Amino acid sequence: MTELKEYRGHIRNWRGLCEELGVDAGLARAERERAIIVKAYEKWGREVADHLYGMFAFAIETDGEIFCVRDQFGTKPFYYYETADGKLLYGTTIRRIMEQEGFVKELNEKMLQIYMTLTYVAGEDTFFKGVKKLMPGHYLVHKNGKTEITRYWHPEFHADESKSLEEWADEIHTTIQNIMPEVKEDGETAESFLSGGVDSSYVLAMSDAQVTDSCGYDDERFDESGLAKQTADILGRKNNRCKITPEQYFDIVPYVMYNMEQPLGDASAIVFAIACKATAEHTKLCYSGEGADEFFGGYNMYRNAERYGDNLKTFYVGNTNIMKEDEKQRILKHYDPNYLPIDLVKYIYDETEGLDPLTKMSDVDIQIWLEGDIYLNVDKMSEAAGLEIRMPLTDRRVFDIASRLPSRFKVNAEQNKVAFRTAAAKVLPEEIAFRKKLGFIVPIRIWLADERYNADVRAKFNSDMAAKFFDLDEINAIFADYISGNSDNWRKIWTIYTFLVWYEEYFVKR
Protein backbone atom coordinates (compact mmCIF):
# COMPACT_ATOMS: atom_id res chain seq x y z
CA MET A 1 0.00 0.00 0.00
CA THR A 2 1.28 3.46 -0.94
CA GLU A 3 0.74 6.02 1.80
CA LEU A 4 1.57 9.73 1.65
CA LYS A 5 2.96 10.51 5.10
CA GLU A 6 4.15 14.09 4.70
CA TYR A 7 3.41 16.82 2.15
CA ARG A 8 3.78 20.56 1.79
CA GLY A 9 3.36 22.47 -1.43
CA HIS A 10 1.23 23.39 -4.42
CA ILE A 11 1.14 21.38 -7.67
CA ARG A 12 0.68 23.71 -10.65
CA ASN A 13 0.01 21.22 -13.44
CA TRP A 14 -2.69 19.44 -11.49
CA ARG A 15 -5.28 19.61 -14.29
CA GLY A 16 -3.16 17.64 -16.72
CA LEU A 17 -2.07 15.22 -14.01
CA CYS A 18 -5.66 14.56 -12.95
CA GLU A 19 -6.51 13.59 -16.50
CA GLU A 20 -3.41 11.46 -17.01
CA LEU A 21 -3.61 9.72 -13.63
CA GLY A 22 -7.37 9.32 -13.34
CA VAL A 23 -7.76 11.60 -10.32
CA ASP A 24 -11.10 13.37 -9.81
CA ALA A 25 -10.40 17.04 -10.65
CA GLY A 26 -13.41 18.04 -8.58
CA LEU A 27 -11.84 17.01 -5.29
CA ALA A 28 -10.91 19.67 -2.76
CA ARG A 29 -7.34 20.85 -3.32
CA ALA A 30 -5.75 19.09 -0.34
CA GLU A 31 -7.37 15.74 -1.12
CA ARG A 32 -6.73 16.13 -4.86
CA GLU A 33 -3.02 16.90 -4.48
CA ARG A 34 -2.47 14.01 -2.11
CA ALA A 35 -4.20 11.69 -4.60
CA ILE A 36 -2.07 13.08 -7.46
CA ILE A 37 1.18 12.48 -5.57
CA VAL A 38 0.28 8.90 -4.65
CA LYS A 39 -0.85 8.04 -8.19
CA ALA A 40 2.15 9.80 -9.72
CA TYR A 41 4.51 7.84 -7.49
CA GLU A 42 2.78 4.58 -8.37
CA LYS A 43 3.15 5.39 -12.08
CA TRP A 44 6.61 6.97 -12.24
CA GLY A 45 8.31 5.82 -9.04
CA ARG A 46 11.49 7.67 -8.19
CA GLU A 47 11.13 9.85 -11.28
CA VAL A 48 7.93 11.37 -9.89
CA ALA A 49 9.39 14.87 -9.40
CA ASP A 50 10.19 15.14 -13.11
CA HIS A 51 6.45 15.20 -13.81
CA LEU A 52 5.46 17.83 -11.23
CA TYR A 53 5.53 21.59 -11.65
CA GLY A 54 5.25 23.73 -8.55
CA MET A 55 6.51 23.75 -4.99
CA PHE A 56 6.68 20.51 -3.04
CA ALA A 57 8.34 18.30 -0.48
CA PHE A 58 6.82 14.98 0.49
CA ALA A 59 7.38 11.52 1.92
CA ILE A 60 5.75 8.27 0.85
CA GLU A 61 5.88 4.92 2.61
CA THR A 62 5.28 1.72 0.69
CA ASP A 63 6.26 -1.92 1.31
CA GLY A 64 8.74 -1.08 4.07
CA GLU A 65 10.41 1.64 2.02
CA ILE A 66 10.38 5.37 2.74
CA PHE A 67 10.73 7.69 -0.26
CA CYS A 68 11.25 11.42 0.35
CA VAL A 69 11.72 14.10 -2.28
CA ARG A 70 12.21 17.84 -2.46
CA ASP A 71 11.49 20.04 -5.47
CA GLN A 72 14.17 21.19 -7.88
CA PHE A 73 14.79 24.58 -6.25
CA GLY A 74 14.04 23.77 -2.61
CA THR A 75 11.02 26.05 -2.20
CA LYS A 76 9.71 23.77 0.53
CA PRO A 77 12.00 22.43 3.27
CA PHE A 78 12.52 18.79 4.16
CA TYR A 79 14.61 17.36 7.01
CA TYR A 80 15.63 13.91 8.17
CA TYR A 81 17.43 12.33 11.13
CA GLU A 82 18.64 8.79 11.78
CA THR A 83 18.23 7.55 15.34
CA ALA A 84 20.79 5.45 17.20
CA ASP A 85 18.81 2.31 16.37
CA GLY A 86 18.62 3.12 12.63
CA LYS A 87 15.11 4.52 12.45
CA LEU A 88 14.54 7.40 10.01
CA LEU A 89 12.74 10.44 11.40
CA TYR A 90 11.63 13.00 8.82
CA GLY A 91 9.41 16.00 8.25
CA THR A 92 8.96 19.36 6.58
CA THR A 93 9.80 21.02 9.89
CA ILE A 94 12.60 20.34 12.35
CA ARG A 95 10.17 20.57 15.25
CA ARG A 96 8.22 17.66 13.77
CA ILE A 97 11.40 15.56 14.00
CA MET A 98 12.18 16.80 17.51
CA GLU A 99 8.81 15.51 18.72
CA GLN A 100 9.53 11.94 17.62
CA GLU A 101 10.90 9.13 19.73
CA GLY A 102 14.63 8.63 19.34
CA PHE A 103 15.55 12.24 18.66
CA VAL A 104 18.42 13.62 20.75
CA LYS A 105 18.78 17.39 20.74
CA GLU A 106 22.39 18.52 20.42
CA LEU A 107 23.90 21.69 19.02
CA ASN A 108 26.00 21.38 15.88
CA GLU A 109 28.37 24.18 16.85
CA LYS A 110 30.52 23.83 13.74
CA MET A 111 27.68 25.33 11.70
CA LEU A 112 28.36 28.63 13.44
CA GLN A 113 31.45 29.04 11.26
CA ILE A 114 29.35 28.82 8.10
CA TYR A 115 26.68 31.06 9.55
CA MET A 116 29.13 33.81 10.52
CA THR A 117 30.14 34.16 6.88
CA LEU A 118 26.88 33.56 5.03
CA THR A 119 24.27 34.76 7.60
CA TYR A 120 22.21 31.64 6.83
CA VAL A 121 22.53 27.86 7.10
CA ALA A 122 23.88 26.54 3.80
CA GLY A 123 24.36 22.98 2.68
CA GLU A 124 22.83 19.80 4.06
CA ASP A 125 23.88 20.15 7.72
CA THR A 126 21.84 22.12 10.24
CA PHE A 127 22.46 23.62 13.68
CA PHE A 128 20.96 20.45 15.18
CA LYS A 129 23.49 17.63 15.23
CA GLY A 130 22.30 14.78 13.04
CA VAL A 131 19.42 16.72 11.47
CA LYS A 132 20.08 17.10 7.77
CA LYS A 133 18.32 18.93 4.99
CA LEU A 134 17.30 16.96 1.96
CA MET A 135 18.80 19.30 -0.60
CA PRO A 136 16.92 20.70 -3.63
CA GLY A 137 16.69 18.31 -6.57
CA HIS A 138 17.35 15.26 -4.36
CA TYR A 139 15.36 12.28 -3.21
CA LEU A 140 15.96 9.91 -0.31
CA VAL A 141 15.22 6.20 -0.05
CA HIS A 142 15.31 4.46 3.33
CA LYS A 143 14.96 0.68 3.44
CA ASN A 144 16.21 -2.03 5.79
CA GLY A 145 17.89 0.55 8.00
CA LYS A 146 19.89 2.07 5.13
CA THR A 147 19.48 5.55 3.68
CA GLU A 148 20.51 6.50 0.15
CA ILE A 149 20.40 10.03 -1.27
CA THR A 150 20.15 10.56 -5.03
CA ARG A 151 20.41 13.82 -6.92
CA TYR A 152 17.76 13.75 -9.64
CA TRP A 153 18.12 17.31 -10.99
CA HIS A 154 20.61 20.14 -11.04
CA PRO A 155 20.84 23.42 -12.95
CA GLU A 156 22.47 23.12 -16.37
CA PHE A 157 23.36 26.01 -18.64
CA HIS A 158 23.70 25.96 -22.43
CA ALA A 159 23.78 29.44 -23.93
CA ASP A 160 21.84 29.82 -27.18
CA GLU A 161 23.18 32.69 -29.29
CA SER A 162 20.60 32.31 -32.07
CA LYS A 163 17.93 34.67 -30.68
CA SER A 164 17.62 38.42 -30.39
CA LEU A 165 16.87 40.25 -27.15
CA GLU A 166 13.29 40.81 -28.26
CA GLU A 167 12.83 37.11 -29.04
CA TRP A 168 14.08 36.17 -25.59
CA ALA A 169 11.75 38.73 -24.01
CA ASP A 170 8.84 37.25 -25.98
CA GLU A 171 9.66 33.75 -24.73
CA ILE A 172 9.90 34.92 -21.10
CA HIS A 173 6.62 36.79 -21.38
CA THR A 174 4.72 33.98 -23.10
CA THR A 175 5.97 31.43 -20.57
CA ILE A 176 4.88 33.55 -17.60
CA GLN A 177 1.52 34.11 -19.30
CA ASN A 178 1.09 30.33 -19.50
CA ILE A 179 2.16 29.75 -15.91
CA MET A 180 0.00 32.39 -14.21
CA PRO A 181 -3.36 30.57 -14.67
CA GLU A 182 -1.82 27.52 -12.93
CA VAL A 183 -0.69 29.47 -9.90
CA LYS A 184 -4.22 30.14 -8.68
CA GLU A 185 -7.31 28.00 -8.90
CA ASP A 186 -10.89 28.98 -9.66
CA GLY A 187 -12.53 30.18 -6.48
CA GLU A 188 -9.28 31.36 -4.88
CA THR A 189 -8.58 35.05 -4.32
CA ALA A 190 -4.97 36.15 -4.07
CA GLU A 191 -3.26 39.36 -3.10
CA SER A 192 0.28 40.24 -4.19
CA PHE A 193 3.33 41.47 -2.31
CA LEU A 194 4.61 44.61 -4.00
CA SER A 195 7.90 46.47 -3.58
CA GLY A 196 9.35 49.16 -5.82
CA GLY A 197 11.12 46.55 -7.96
CA VAL A 198 10.36 44.98 -11.32
CA ASP A 199 9.86 41.36 -10.15
CA SER A 200 6.87 41.94 -7.88
CA SER A 201 5.52 44.58 -10.29
CA TYR A 202 5.65 42.14 -13.22
CA VAL A 203 3.96 39.39 -11.21
CA LEU A 204 1.23 41.83 -10.23
CA ALA A 205 0.72 43.04 -13.80
CA MET A 206 0.40 39.44 -15.02
CA SER A 207 -1.97 38.39 -12.24
CA ASP A 208 -5.60 39.05 -11.38
CA ALA A 209 -4.72 40.21 -7.85
CA GLN A 210 -6.70 43.34 -7.03
CA VAL A 211 -4.98 44.08 -3.71
CA THR A 212 -1.27 44.60 -3.08
CA ASP A 213 0.70 44.58 0.18
CA SER A 214 3.79 46.67 0.85
CA CYS A 215 6.05 47.63 3.76
CA GLY A 216 7.35 51.08 4.60
CA TYR A 217 9.17 53.16 7.21
CA ASP A 218 9.07 56.69 8.48
CA ASP A 219 12.61 57.18 7.18
CA GLU A 220 12.22 58.05 3.49
CA ARG A 221 15.74 56.88 2.67
CA PHE A 222 14.61 53.29 3.19
CA ASP A 223 10.97 53.55 2.19
CA GLU A 224 9.99 51.89 -1.10
CA SER A 225 6.30 51.91 -0.30
CA GLY A 226 5.71 55.13 -2.24
CA LEU A 227 7.06 53.50 -5.40
CA ALA A 228 4.90 50.45 -4.75
CA LYS A 229 1.83 52.66 -4.36
CA GLN A 230 2.62 54.36 -7.69
CA THR A 231 2.82 50.97 -9.41
CA ALA A 232 -0.44 49.81 -7.84
CA ASP A 233 -2.16 53.01 -8.92
CA ILE A 234 -0.89 52.69 -12.51
CA LEU A 235 -2.16 49.11 -12.68
CA GLY A 236 -5.47 50.00 -11.03
CA ARG A 237 -4.96 47.89 -7.91
CA LYS A 238 -5.45 48.71 -4.25
CA ASN A 239 -2.35 49.06 -2.05
CA ASN A 240 -2.08 48.24 1.66
CA ARG A 241 0.93 49.77 3.40
CA CYS A 242 2.31 48.23 6.59
CA LYS A 243 4.46 50.81 8.38
CA ILE A 244 7.18 49.13 10.41
CA THR A 245 8.52 50.74 13.57
CA PRO A 246 11.84 49.87 15.23
CA GLU A 247 10.01 48.70 18.37
CA GLN A 248 7.91 46.31 16.30
CA TYR A 249 11.01 45.11 14.46
CA PHE A 250 13.03 44.23 17.56
CA ASP A 251 10.07 42.78 19.45
CA ILE A 252 9.35 40.13 16.82
CA VAL A 253 12.92 38.77 16.50
CA PRO A 254 12.40 35.84 18.96
CA TYR A 255 9.18 34.86 17.14
CA VAL A 256 11.06 34.87 13.83
CA MET A 257 14.02 32.83 15.06
CA TYR A 258 11.77 30.26 16.72
CA ASN A 259 9.56 29.80 13.66
CA MET A 260 12.54 29.85 11.28
CA GLU A 261 13.88 26.84 13.24
CA GLN A 262 17.41 27.85 12.27
CA PRO A 263 19.04 31.24 12.79
CA LEU A 264 18.82 33.63 9.84
CA GLY A 265 20.84 36.84 9.81
CA ASP A 266 19.02 38.35 6.84
CA ALA A 267 17.59 41.57 8.28
CA SER A 268 14.81 41.61 5.69
CA ALA A 269 13.44 38.35 7.16
CA ILE A 270 12.11 40.30 10.14
CA VAL A 271 10.32 42.72 7.84
CA PHE A 272 8.92 39.84 5.84
CA ALA A 273 7.58 38.21 9.00
CA ILE A 274 5.76 41.41 9.94
CA ALA A 275 4.42 41.72 6.39
CA CYS A 276 3.13 38.12 6.44
CA LYS A 277 1.32 38.64 9.74
CA ALA A 278 -0.26 41.88 8.51
CA THR A 279 -1.28 40.39 5.16
CA ALA A 280 -2.75 37.26 6.76
CA GLU A 281 -5.28 39.47 8.51
CA HIS A 282 -7.15 39.95 5.23
CA THR A 283 -6.12 37.09 2.91
CA LYS A 284 -4.78 33.56 3.08
CA LEU A 285 -3.07 33.58 -0.33
CA CYS A 286 -0.45 35.93 -1.73
CA TYR A 287 1.91 36.09 -4.71
CA SER A 288 5.59 36.97 -4.42
CA GLY A 289 8.33 37.50 -7.01
CA GLU A 290 11.27 35.36 -5.81
CA GLY A 291 13.59 33.63 -8.26
CA ALA A 292 14.04 36.15 -11.07
CA ASP A 293 17.18 37.78 -9.63
CA GLU A 294 19.10 34.52 -9.47
CA PHE A 295 17.79 33.15 -12.77
CA PHE A 296 18.13 36.29 -14.88
CA GLY A 297 21.08 38.18 -13.37
CA GLY A 298 19.38 40.61 -11.03
CA TYR A 299 22.01 41.47 -8.44
CA ASN A 300 24.26 44.46 -8.94
CA MET A 301 27.32 42.40 -7.96
CA TYR A 302 26.77 40.26 -11.05
CA ARG A 303 28.01 43.16 -13.14
CA ASN A 304 31.47 42.50 -11.67
CA ALA A 305 31.45 38.88 -12.81
CA GLU A 306 33.87 39.26 -15.70
CA ARG A 307 36.28 41.18 -13.49
CA TYR A 308 36.28 38.38 -10.93
CA GLY A 309 36.96 35.79 -13.62
CA ASP A 310 38.44 32.50 -12.48
CA ASN A 311 39.12 33.92 -9.00
CA LEU A 312 35.45 33.33 -8.21
CA LYS A 313 36.09 29.78 -7.06
CA THR A 314 38.47 31.04 -4.39
CA PHE A 315 35.98 33.33 -2.64
CA TYR A 316 32.44 33.48 -4.07
CA VAL A 317 30.20 31.48 -1.76
CA GLY A 318 26.98 33.27 -2.60
CA ASN A 319 25.14 36.50 -2.17
CA THR A 320 26.52 37.23 1.28
CA ASN A 321 30.06 36.98 2.62
CA ILE A 322 30.36 39.14 5.69
CA MET A 323 33.17 37.66 7.74
CA LYS A 324 36.58 36.31 6.73
CA GLU A 325 38.30 33.34 8.34
CA ASP A 326 40.88 35.33 10.30
CA GLU A 327 38.14 37.40 11.93
CA LYS A 328 36.09 34.32 12.82
CA GLN A 329 39.19 32.73 14.30
CA ARG A 330 39.56 35.71 16.65
CA ILE A 331 35.89 35.78 17.59
CA LEU A 332 34.93 32.12 17.97
CA LYS A 333 35.89 30.08 21.02
CA HIS A 334 35.97 26.87 18.97
CA TYR A 335 37.29 27.40 15.46
CA ASP A 336 38.05 24.59 13.01
CA PRO A 337 40.35 25.71 10.17
CA ASN A 338 39.19 22.76 8.07
CA TYR A 339 35.51 23.76 8.08
CA LEU A 340 35.24 26.44 5.39
CA PRO A 341 32.27 27.98 3.52
CA ILE A 342 34.07 27.70 0.18
CA ASP A 343 34.01 23.91 0.50
CA LEU A 344 30.20 23.99 0.26
CA VAL A 345 30.34 25.27 -3.32
CA LYS A 346 33.33 23.45 -4.79
CA TYR A 347 31.06 20.94 -6.51
CA ILE A 348 29.22 23.81 -8.22
CA TYR A 349 32.45 25.21 -9.63
CA ASP A 350 33.32 21.72 -10.85
CA GLU A 351 29.94 21.50 -12.60
CA THR A 352 30.31 24.93 -14.21
CA GLU A 353 33.93 24.54 -15.32
CA GLY A 354 34.36 26.33 -18.65
CA LEU A 355 31.23 28.48 -18.30
CA ASP A 356 31.32 32.26 -18.01
CA PRO A 357 31.74 33.93 -14.58
CA LEU A 358 28.17 35.27 -14.39
CA THR A 359 26.75 31.79 -14.91
CA LYS A 360 28.98 30.48 -12.13
CA MET A 361 27.81 33.17 -9.71
CA SER A 362 24.18 32.60 -10.60
CA ASP A 363 24.49 28.85 -10.15
CA VAL A 364 26.00 29.25 -6.68
CA ASP A 365 23.12 31.51 -5.68
CA ILE A 366 20.47 29.23 -7.21
CA GLN A 367 21.78 26.17 -5.38
CA ILE A 368 22.94 27.71 -2.08
CA TRP A 369 21.48 31.15 -1.36
CA LEU A 370 17.93 30.62 -2.65
CA GLU A 371 17.45 27.44 -0.64
CA GLY A 372 19.25 28.57 2.50
CA ASP A 373 17.87 32.08 2.81
CA ILE A 374 15.16 33.24 0.41
CA TYR A 375 12.91 30.20 0.15
CA LEU A 376 13.42 29.28 3.80
CA ASN A 377 12.28 32.75 4.83
CA VAL A 378 9.24 32.71 2.54
CA ASP A 379 8.14 29.27 3.66
CA LYS A 380 8.69 29.60 7.41
CA MET A 381 7.30 33.10 7.89
CA SER A 382 4.23 32.54 5.74
CA GLU A 383 3.51 29.22 7.46
CA ALA A 384 3.84 30.82 10.91
CA ALA A 385 1.39 33.56 9.94
CA GLY A 386 -1.13 31.21 8.36
CA LEU A 387 -0.49 32.67 4.91
CA GLU A 388 0.18 30.71 1.72
CA ILE A 389 2.66 32.27 -0.69
CA ARG A 390 3.07 31.21 -4.29
CA MET A 391 6.00 32.32 -6.39
CA PRO A 392 5.12 32.29 -10.12
CA LEU A 393 8.65 33.11 -11.27
CA THR A 394 10.17 30.11 -9.49
CA ASP A 395 9.36 27.48 -12.05
CA ARG A 396 11.41 25.01 -14.09
CA ARG A 397 9.91 26.45 -17.28
CA VAL A 398 11.13 29.92 -16.36
CA PHE A 399 14.54 28.57 -15.38
CA ASP A 400 14.73 26.68 -18.68
CA ILE A 401 14.75 30.02 -20.49
CA ALA A 402 17.33 31.47 -18.10
CA SER A 403 19.53 28.41 -18.61
CA ARG A 404 19.70 29.09 -22.35
CA LEU A 405 19.86 32.89 -22.14
CA PRO A 406 23.32 34.29 -22.96
CA SER A 407 24.84 36.29 -20.13
CA ARG A 408 24.93 39.47 -22.24
CA PHE A 409 21.12 39.43 -22.13
CA LYS A 410 21.19 39.12 -18.36
CA VAL A 411 23.71 41.80 -17.42
CA ASN A 412 25.46 44.59 -19.29
CA ALA A 413 27.44 47.68 -18.27
CA GLU A 414 24.29 49.74 -17.65
CA GLN A 415 21.65 47.28 -16.53
CA ASN A 416 20.89 43.96 -14.88
CA LYS A 417 18.10 41.50 -15.78
CA VAL A 418 18.08 42.95 -19.29
CA ALA A 419 15.88 40.37 -21.05
CA PHE A 420 13.58 39.97 -18.05
CA ARG A 421 13.05 43.74 -17.84
CA THR A 422 12.41 43.88 -21.58
CA ALA A 423 9.70 41.24 -21.10
CA ALA A 424 8.22 43.13 -18.15
CA ALA A 425 8.07 46.32 -20.24
CA LYS A 426 5.35 44.66 -22.31
CA VAL A 427 2.92 45.22 -19.43
CA LEU A 428 4.68 47.85 -17.29
CA PRO A 429 5.77 51.43 -17.97
CA GLU A 430 9.48 51.66 -18.85
CA GLU A 431 10.28 53.61 -15.68
CA ILE A 432 9.07 50.63 -13.60
CA ALA A 433 10.42 47.84 -15.80
CA PHE A 434 13.89 49.42 -15.94
CA ARG A 435 14.01 50.95 -12.46
CA LYS A 436 17.37 50.46 -10.76
CA LYS A 437 17.40 47.58 -8.29
CA LEU A 438 17.06 48.87 -4.75
CA GLY A 439 17.03 45.60 -2.83
CA PHE A 440 14.89 44.95 0.22
CA ILE A 441 16.40 47.70 2.34
CA VAL A 442 15.87 47.91 6.09
CA PRO A 443 16.86 50.77 8.47
CA ILE A 444 18.41 48.27 10.90
CA ARG A 445 21.88 49.71 10.26
CA ILE A 446 20.62 52.89 11.96
CA TRP A 447 18.34 51.33 14.57
CA LEU A 448 21.09 49.08 15.94
CA ALA A 449 23.06 52.13 17.08
CA ASP A 450 20.08 53.67 18.86
CA GLU A 451 20.13 53.26 22.65
CA ARG A 452 16.32 53.10 22.64
CA TYR A 453 16.32 49.81 20.72
CA ASN A 454 19.59 47.94 21.18
CA ALA A 455 19.42 47.04 24.88
CA ASP A 456 18.78 43.34 24.21
CA VAL A 457 21.63 43.23 21.67
CA ARG A 458 24.02 44.70 24.24
CA ALA A 459 22.78 42.34 26.94
CA LYS A 460 23.24 39.26 24.78
CA PHE A 461 26.71 40.40 23.68
CA ASN A 462 27.71 40.39 27.37
CA SER A 463 25.90 37.24 28.47
CA ASP A 464 27.17 33.92 29.77
CA MET A 465 25.34 32.39 26.83
CA ALA A 466 27.45 34.39 24.35
CA ALA A 467 30.63 33.53 26.26
CA LYS A 468 30.08 29.85 25.37
CA PHE A 469 30.72 30.63 21.73
CA PHE A 470 32.41 34.02 21.38
CA ASP A 471 35.27 36.05 22.78
CA LEU A 472 33.17 38.76 24.42
CA ASP A 473 35.89 41.41 24.11
CA GLU A 474 36.13 40.77 20.37
CA ILE A 475 32.41 40.93 19.62
CA ASN A 476 31.96 43.99 21.81
CA ALA A 477 34.85 45.66 19.99
CA ILE A 478 32.91 45.15 16.74
CA PHE A 479 29.88 46.71 18.40
CA ALA A 480 31.91 49.66 19.70
CA ASP A 481 33.45 50.20 16.26
CA TYR A 482 29.95 50.22 14.77
CA ILE A 483 28.65 52.73 17.33
CA SER A 484 31.69 54.92 16.58
CA GLY A 485 30.64 55.20 12.96
CA ASN A 486 31.67 52.05 11.08
CA SER A 487 28.17 51.26 9.87
CA ASP A 488 29.44 48.35 7.73
CA ASN A 489 29.70 46.32 10.94
CA TRP A 490 25.94 46.16 11.42
CA ARG A 491 25.67 42.87 9.50
CA LYS A 492 28.22 41.18 11.74
CA ILE A 493 26.40 42.37 14.85
CA TRP A 494 23.03 41.29 13.52
CA THR A 495 24.32 37.85 12.53
CA ILE A 496 25.80 37.23 15.98
CA TYR A 497 22.66 38.56 17.66
CA THR A 498 20.23 36.43 15.64
CA PHE A 499 22.24 33.31 16.44
CA LEU A 500 22.08 34.12 20.15
CA VAL A 501 18.32 34.78 20.01
CA TRP A 502 17.81 31.48 18.18
CA TYR A 503 20.04 29.58 20.62
CA GLU A 504 18.11 31.00 23.57
CA GLU A 505 14.81 29.92 21.98
CA TYR A 506 15.91 26.32 21.36
CA PHE A 507 18.57 25.53 23.97
CA VAL A 508 17.87 27.80 26.94
CA LYS A 509 14.11 28.33 27.11
CA ARG A 510 13.10 24.86 25.89
Automatic annotation (TrEMBL):
Q: Which organism is it from?
A: Ruminococcus albus 8
Q: What's the top EC group for this one? A: ligase
What are the site positions for Important for beta-aspartyl-AMP intermediate formation? 290
Taxon lineage: Bacteria, Bacillati, Bacillota, Clostridia, Eubacteriales
* Sorted UniProt keywords: Amino-acid biosynthesis, Asparagine biosynthesis, ATP-binding, Nucleotide-binding
Q: Determine the domain of life of the protein's source.
A: Bacteria
Q: Which GO terms describe its biological process?
A: asparagine biosynthetic process
GO cellular component, as recorded: cytosol
Q: In which pathway does it act?
A: Amino-acid biosynthesis; L-asparagine biosynthesis; L-asparagine from L-aspartate (L-Gln route): step 1/1
Q: Which family does it belong to?
A: Belongs to the asparagine synthetase family.
Q: What is its EC number?
A: 6.3.5.4
Example GO molecular function term? asparagine synthase (glutamine-hydrolyzing) activity
Annotated Glutamine amidotransferase type-2 domain residues: 1-145
What is this protein's record name? Answer: asparagine synthase (glutamine-hydrolyzing)
Q: What is the catalytic activity of this protein?
A: L-aspartate + L-glutamine + ATP + H2O = L-asparagine + L-glutamate + AMP + diphosphate + H(+)
